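Handout, section 4.2: multi-component inputs.
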Amino acid sequence: MDTFVDQQGSELAFNVMDQFCPSRVVLQRIGDKWTPLVFQALKQGVLRFSELRSAIGGVTPKVLTQTLRSLERDGLVSRTVYAEVPPRVEYRLTELGVSLLEPLDAVRAWAETHAGSVLTSRDAFDDA
Amino acid sequence: MDTFVDQQGSELAFNVMDQFCPSRVVLQRIGDKWTPLVFQALKQGVLRFSELRSAIGGVTPKVLTQTLRSLERDGLVSRTVYAEVPPRVEYRLTELGVSLLEPLDAVRAWAETHAGSVLTSRDAFDDA
DNA sequence: CAGCATCCTAAACGATACTG
DNA sequence: CAGTATCGTTTAGGATGCTG
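Output:
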């Protein structure tokens, strides 16, 4: 288990409940708007930029690029450029990325399974 | 499995990769900035507003209220008001909320376990 | 105690157009 | 093909002060 030094100078184990713990930043990174969708797309293996773009409905090139750069920076996705014309760029999950696949996939599956219940609850709440 | 009607009028199973699928909204709701932290706090059982607030470092009352209202609306958290002076309000996970606890907890655990690796990768990327 | 009201900023996101 | 550049919008989130 890693540790960090908090505001009081104490050395503490990583804990998302601490306002200044780096793990909270990481948690929010992997829970952003597009990351779970990129992971879902890359579950099947290697994809090119345009393939990712069409796999993820509604994502613009700018935002997809930003998301992929962040994931690359965080060591979750690797980017391979082939010196061809036209250019070809391939994205795949790193080993670290693969380790995150199962947790993110569980959340995605929950969303798809229970979206109906949530929407029903939402309607009932709004009627009241 | 629930279904929804997409832009072409077809009836499809819930799928977060579809831009117009309601499950995507649900996914983004449960992956927002504070929801995973509220769940982590409520894992232990019932908490009052002020207890939640101090359990989640750095959250302001306004944002915590907003988050809790959304979770209540979505049927994930229940809110109980006691007619006392001073007022007492208790929050707890609903049955639906409990079903989401395990997936969210897995993501939280991943963040705490691998935050060190992510930060290391980030530093290396920024040096290059 | 548990919030609500108000104002404000930062940043994420999106639309469009263009390029090596 | 795989982006970048620029601009504009939206909205989450924060600071502060007040109330039943």
